[in-house]
Amino acid sequence: MKARLPKGMGGGPQNMQQMLKQAQKMQEQIEQKQEELKLKEYVVSSGGGMVEVTVTGAHEVKAIGINPEVVDPEDVEMLEDMLVAALNEANRQIDEESEREMDAATGGLNIPGL
Q: How many beta carbons lie within 10 A of that of residue 57, not counting itself?
């Protein structure tokens, strides 16, 4: 007994060529989306707006803003904590959006390295 592939799933040359074209198009879309995400800037604040950071999608810190009211020489640790919180939140947002955009570009396929 021979196994049969579902209709339209044959491995003929036309089908293979179509699959290669689709894969190439998907790769181009992924590369374009990755470049867009790298250039995007994320602005995140912490401490009720006392600290604000701007980070690119490539995880590059572009700017840090600190409200002078929060600068207390006796409590540098609080300022450090707010900076860490803002940077971690920015990185979380970048990773979350990157994953969401790559899922959309790949149609939910799990492609290693993305």
A: 21
